[in-house]
Amino acid sequence: MSEHPIHVVGGGLAGSESAWQLAQAGLPVILHEMRPVRQTPAHHSDGLAELVCSNSLRSDDADHNAVGLLHEEMRRAGSLILSAADACKVPAGGALAVDREAFSAHVQAALEAHPNVTIRREEIAGLPPAEWERVIVATGPLTSAPLAEALAALTGEDSLSFFDAIAPIVVRDSIDFSKAWFQSRYDKGDGSDYINCPLSREQYDSFIDGLLAGDTVPFRDWEKDTPYFEGCLPIEVMASRGRGTLAFGPMKPVGLTDPNGPKPFAVVQLRQDNALATLYNMVGFQTKLRHGEQVRLFRTIPGLENAEFARLGGLHRNTFVNGPRVLTRDLTLKAEPRLRLAGQITGCEGYVESAAIGLLAGCFTAAEARGRDLPPPPLTSALGALLAHVTGGALAETFQPMNVTFGLFPPPPERDESGRRVKGRERKKLYSIRARNDIAPWLDTLRSSLA
Hints:
By secondary structure, the chain is an alpha+beta fold. It contains 12 helices and 17 strands. It has helices at about 15-25, 65-75, 80-85, 100-115, 145-155, 200-215, 235-240, 290-300, 325, 350-370, 380-395, 425-450; strands at about 5-10, 30-35, 55-60, 90, 95-100, 115-120, 135, 160-165, 170, 180, 195-200, 265-270, 280, 310, 315-320, 330-335, 335-340.
């Protein structure tokens, strides 16, 4: 077993969770947090695991919601973040919301009291020193410039992003194929690489009216220098340049033939977003529209009237690597195997997801330090589906951060044992039942690997 301390860089949710898992496995940990030596434009305190935006960890329904299932799996794996959330929760209906100050204090107190944890308030400016044998980098969406630049140099400039230009993602099963069809422009590729939703001239004009009138989310103060790049302009910005801009841009109908009707005036294309082909992203539809506006407006598109959105669009500052390109399945950086990444920098989105990847990074590193092999969690579990997304389940060419969703899981059978077709909440429960069954042996392996 390694006697060298394991270094965790970043004291947010992911870093705190990683440090806890390592310490609980009996390993010495040094947790480096740059605040208050160097503040970020988003944080308001020096506390570990500060919740910068919302105080909600979202749905706690483990039977019908993917993030609720992730909560359950993390509790079963001994998560500090979920333990703190349960101890500091406030009324929020079916959601798990917390008193943010009490939550941060709870996490910090637990780590400060742990005999295997040393907390150092200092910035790691650049790559961690070469003599550090094992390092987890969990610096979050506001990674300091020197470290971000070092990671860009290490992984390649095109593998590190500094903002999200996010297009909505639609669950394939919710698309109406009596109106939509598969086809590539001019039948390139295999001829059916895209799902196409047609709009008449009247439908297009109505869509543009709604787009221009839509309510957008303003940038926060620390995001106001977020650049717009011509290659990924929000669709409402493109539309403001002229009513025909989208029809000659991402919604152009050329090279497409609607088998269900007349030639469309405009077409919304959706491109496969994961290896399972359960999720499709709306090509060129990054947007700053408020989420409610997006759902209302995008469901006016023929074929998407009942669309289920695995993720809605957005544009905001964020530092993350192209995980499918630069990470191994155990979160090791391919270009520097002594480094693991954790949290939002891996390309996951959300408090819970960041902590979950931190948990896994801590467990993988602990097992490695003990000379043991810990396989990834099963793909049918919430932990496994999320890990797969950031390490290869997503397509590197279109990779963007995502919350956990059942769209990341392999689909369960469409019919129950009696042959009855299962839909809606019943189908979601099938995901959860299967996940509970499949993750139990992995949790046993985890415990034996860290014992």
